Amino acid sequence: MNTKTIDSGVFYGMLRAGSARLGANKTTVNDLNVFPIPDGDTGDNMFMTIDSGVKSASGLKGAGLGELASAASKGMLLGARGNSGVILSRIFAGIARGLDGLDTADVAAFDHAMQCAVEESYNAVSNPVEGTILTVLKDSVAKAGKSGADSLEGYFGALLPEMEASLERTPDLLPVLKEAGVVDSGGSGLLCIAQGMSDALEGKAAEDGEEPLPAAGRTHAVNLDAFGPDSELGFGYCTEFLLRLQTSKVDLTTFDVNVIKDYLDSVGESVVCFREGSIVKVHVHTRKPGDILNKCQTWGEYLTLKIENMTLQHEEIIKREAASEEEAPAVLKKIRKPLAIVTVASGEGLAAALREAGADEVVEGGQTMNPSAAAFIEAFDRLDAENILVFPNNSNIILTAQQAAELYDKSRVAVVPTRNFGSGYVGIASVDHGCKDLQTLAEAAAEAAGSVVTGLVSKAIRDTLKDGVDVHEGDYVGFSGSEMLADSPVRSEAALALCEAIGAAEHDVVLVFAGSDVDGDESEALARELGKKYRRTEFIMNAGGQPVYDYIFVLC
Amino acid sequence: MTPRTAAKYGYRLISMPYSIDGVTYYPYKDTDEEFDFHGYYEKLRDGVLPTTSAISEQQYIEYFEPEFAAGNDILYVHFSAAMTMTFDAMHKALKTLAEKYPDRKFYEIDTKGISIIGFAIANEVGEMVLAGKTVEEILKWAETEVDHYAVYFFADNLKFFRRSGRVSGLAATMGGLIGLRPIIFMNAEGKMVSIGTEKGRAKAMERLANTAVEIGDDVPSYKVYIAQADCPDLAEQVAELLQERFGGKLDIDIEYVNPTAGAHCGPDSMGVCFHSKRR
User: Fold this and answer.
1) C-alpha angle with apex A424: A423 to A425, nearest 5 degrees?
2) May I ask the CATH class of domain A235-324?
3) Distance (Å) from the C-alpha of residue A427 to the closest C-alpha of chain B?
4) Which residues in chain B are closer than 8 Å to A434, comparing Cβ atoms?
């Protein structure tokens, strides 16, 4: 055969044969699943995806090639399952884009469409990983494009050997494959499809009868007991949905799907997200699918939804594999919190304030009791986060925190060298949880914390003369750093004098943390007084509940 | 827009509901002039989080049909369609009614704002109605003028906007705890966008006043509106800042943020609406 151009009929036959070939080999592809990937078996997922495309296109065999390719692509979009299925649907979306508006395609046009497929598939994935279906497609399309083939058979003649070769190379690119001694399953599924398509061109595929393909889908017996009352949600939920963007919520002409993609990246893993017209397809692994669903509903409404507990399926697969093999490779990555914050405080009151500002772990410690590096490391372990920011809040603790950060290799850790509670609080509250770069975060937090001035009010325990201030036992004293600034038998008077001395007027915002001995009426009266005296400064009163210091003033 | 202003212009009000603890309220609907704004915002300060909802096709029919049945056409001046699903229901209602009343006409002006922009524009439209302008003249005015009413505002506590998720560009910080106030405006699409933060309330208020100077267009010739969510003292301060900048020549109207919009911005939020070169 020497096919110079293909039309919709030929292309439909190719699709159908590709689907059939994958259908016949899907168990083999499934067996390549080294990842105990809970979002289904790759062979099944890819087969259900392409099968859905074939069904959508079946009525259009007499239409233009572009039209049929587009229908197939839409069908795959709606039917896409799992990561590989989603990527496969993108490959065909790329092909459809390349063939758009054409009635027939010659070798050059088909090659162009395949290049669109490469582009589209890479764009669909937030962090493209080499050694997967993506690489297999890219390598083979590059080779076939350069082959100079003048027939479609010739094109596939160049494509298929490189696809096989690239597939063989995947373990060199992806260590988990090497470890398990297999090639990439998605790439292998893609090869099956390409072989089927080539067979159709060569006339080797079964005649295009109207009998239906084997029904897609399988019943997946899940043992619910695998996730008991005490089980840990180690792997989160595989969450997939189709979202129809709503004109009442977004402007379809200007809406950038990266808004959704960026959001998903900040809260989940294995993100695949792309848009087709007004439909957005999402695949994400997350611990909190509800949060994602609520958020995404601000952009549209759901067409389909699937949420599966991956821990449950993981247990299942481990069991299944353990039955046949000695040991199952534990390669599934746990979903970790993208960013966690560790800080130091003594006393529950200030610890609670720091938690409210965004701290995930508050290590007990302070001036009199410096925590050890081990205490930090235990906190890091409890958090199990990709990135950790540490706010030590005391000059004697900064080095320990830095040492702990250096010793720790399970997360990226950066220390923001805060020297007191106030700068720690301001630094933590200013962390932008939408930012993913730890260094940028650490620098921004250090800058926010750096300009902070702290003043303290406490009760004097003996008479003394310090920095020109005559201090009487039992009086309230106001000081900043080691400098004594105010003394008064009345607590609020000491506080007012202290604010004056540390220059509250020059700051836009002053945070006030009232200690455990100060009742709400007194602190509110002080806040009113301060508000009247300093019209341009905003005083934010908090019940800090700390011992020893009746008031902590944080000027920022 | 309260029932009193509505009566002045002969408007019929369509009430957008809010709910607290499962009970839905339709503000102003019973021509309740004395809505207890302070009591409402005090509840929000005490931790109550009201929800808001769209109104249904049936409700729209109930609002529109008596007018069509009486042989009237309708001009609907409404808040930003980009912020809500409500207008889907409105369009469905109109489709249903069009079959029954094929000769009646429906016009709409999307103010591309909520609360105070809507109020400012509805007032202007009302004045034109009183002056005997035709609907064509009013629509022509709206076509160009809607984009010349800008609103800039800030919220005191971001938990309300965070929950409603209707502001884009908000940094994911706890900056509210340390007095950072995102400055938000309604863009030309009728959506809320944050354009950076100011540290402390005083600076935030100055930013609002300065923005009126920067992008204002012949501000003293038009009424300036200040919206406040139960913080009249702050509104007075902003009014002072504005008068300082415009030589005391402004006609300033200070109004409460309606409870439904207030459910999204929270108490002690405030904004300034003025005639501007752009949104």
Assistant:
1) 90
2) alpha beta
3) 10
4) 171-172
Intervals of CATH 3.40.50.10170 along chain B = 3-146
pLDDT score recorded for residue A366: 77
Judged by a CB distance cut-off of 8 A, whether residue A436 touches chain B is: no
Please tell me whether residue B144 adopts helix, strand or coil conformation.
Answer: helix
Q: Which fold has domain B3-146?
A: Rossmann fold (3.40.50)
Beta strands in A325-428 (DSSP E): 337-345, 361-364, 385-391, 412-415
Counting Cα atoms < 13 Å in the Cβ hemisphere of B162 gives 12
Which chain B residues touch A537 with a CB distance below 8 Å?
Answer: 200, 202
pLDDT: which is higher, A329 or B82: B82
pLDDT at A155 over 70: yes
pLDDT of residue A313: 67
Interchain proximity A429–B171, CB inside 8 Å: no
CATH 3.30.1180.10 for domain B147-275, yes or no, is yes
Q: Which residue of A has its CA nearest to B90?
A: A248
Q: Which chain A residue shows the shortest CA-CA distance from B197?
A: A430
The segment(s) of chain B belonging to CATH 3.30.1180.10 are 147-275
What is the three-class DSSP state of A485?
strand
* B165·A431 Cβ contact <8 A: no
Helix axes A258-267, A289-296, angle to 10 degrees: 160
Interface contact A251, partner B, CB < 8 A: yes
Is it the case that residue A212 has pLDDT exceeding 90? no
For chain A, residues classed under CATH 3.30.1180 are 453-555
Under DSSP, is residue B238 helix (H, G, I), strand (E, B) or coil?
helix
As for the ipTM of the complex, it is 0.81
Mean pLDDT on A286-307: 89
Instruction: Answer yes or no: are the C-beta atoms of A193 and A18 closer than 8 Å.
Output: yes
The beta-carbon neighbor of B178 closest among A249, A298, A511 is A511
Using a CB-CB cut-off of 8 Å, the residues of chain B touching A508 are 179, 199-200, 202-203
Query: What is the Cα–Cα distance from B114 to A169, expressed in whole angstroms?
Result: 59
CB proximity A495 to B under 8 Å: no
Give the angle subtended at the CA of A166 by the CAs of A161 and A169, to the nearest 5°. 135
Q: Measuring CA to CA, how many Å separate B222 from each of A137, A350, B225, B250, B256?
A: 63, 50, 10, 8, 19
| Whether B177 and A356 lie within 8 Å, measured CB to CB | yes
Other Cβ atoms less than 10 A from the Cβ of B32: the count is 12
Q: Does domain A337-450 have CATH number 3.30.530.20?
A: no
Q: Specify the CATH class of A5-202 in words.
A: mainly alpha
Whether the model clears a pTM of 0.90, i.e. scores above it, the answer is no
Least confident of A6-10, A291-295, B161-165, B179-183: B161-165
Would you tell me which CATH number, out of the four given (3.30.1180, 3.40.1710, 2.40.160, 3.30.70), belongs to the domain A453-555? 3.30.1180
Rounded to whole angstroms, how far apart are CA atoms B164 and B142? 29
Among A341, A425, A508, the strongest candidate for a mutation testing the B interface, having the largest count of B CBs within 10 A, is A508
Helix (H, G, I), strand (E, B) or coil at A532: helix
